[in-house]
């Protein structure tokens, strides 16, 4: 049995799209291959406990990949793309995905957009430590900084300027937990202004973008097809003052040093440039490579108070309180044993707030919440730390 969770309705509507699904087999599989248009594509295999729970007598295999439609244009001329999944070399299932005409049209422009941005980056990337573009030297298979000796191996079309000591492997989560994002009206207006001035925008921690924008440089720690530069926010690989605007959407909670990142963002902005930043406040623990800090409105203001003048601070449509409520309750439900979920789902909002918290602590939907669920949704956490006896 095989099922595709994404794309929904078996239709590719974006030129860059996640392909996510699962299959079950009678025997434990040794290999799995995903083919689009008859060609294998890179993917990750992952566990699917939800599928295993539904089919306990079978082996369950989850998979995730990212489609770059520009690499499959020769197979989409009739507005569709064939797919198949092979387990141990044997095709288990196959079918056809419809492809939206707009996705095909944009896919035809992707190579040209990439070339334009790559030409710009050749003149503007720099060592993330020395910050001088004239110290970089391209040698076979890597970029070397003549000033500090740092080496950056080059493995894909994106420029890799991840600091070697960061320990980040851009392939680790490239297709397992795929954050797909677009741009809201505020971002699009900023992009248009930059385009009219022949300026550039940095999307710092861009995730997977469904479309490429010629005036937006996407920086990520994960090598998605839409990634232009691999790097980290604490050491941006750009000289001072080259971007008209910087986007930072749901990123600063995932960095260990948000104040350093904030300083780096303001460093690469042109004088008078604009930062558009969004961070979570009430959200469960999530993300890659880690999740360090949520922020109150005062915390976000404090992060940039010494670096710029705040023009506007608001709750965007994508951050409305109901998102927090829906996310928390959904995660709670997912981390309960199936036998307990019905009682939890039957509670009304009125019941939940009619009594103090202590009234519910002995209920199964509290007592039997998984340990992982308790960490993800904790109101507070606690820690004991002992200083080493031989330290000064």
Quick gist of this model?
With 392 residues, this protein is of the alpha/beta class.
Topology:
Blueprint: E1 2-6, E2 11-12, E3 16-25, E4 32-36, E5 39-41, E6 43-46, H1 49-54, E7 59-68, E8 80-87, E9 90-99, H2 101-107, H3 110-124, E10 136-139, E11 142-145, E12 151-153, E13 159-160, E14 180-181, H4 185-196, E15 201-204, E16 208-209, E17 216-220, E18 229-230, E19 243-249, H5 258-268, E20 269-278, H6 297-304, H7 321-334, H8 338-346, H9 349-354, H10 364-367, H11 371-377
Parallel strand pairs: 2-9, 13-18, 14-16, 15-17, 15-19, 17-18, 19-20
Antiparallel strand pairs: 1-3, 3-7, 4-5, 4-8, 6-7, 8-9, 10-11, 11-12
Helix content: 25-40%
- The beta-strand count equals 20
**Strand-pairing-aware structural class:** alpha/beta
Question: Overall pLDDT, averaged?
Answer: 91
> How much strand?
25-35%
User: What's the number of structural domains?
Assistant: 3
Task: Name the CATH class of the largest domain.
Answer: Alpha Beta
Low-confidence parts lasting 5 or more residues at pLDDT below 50?
none
Morphology: globular
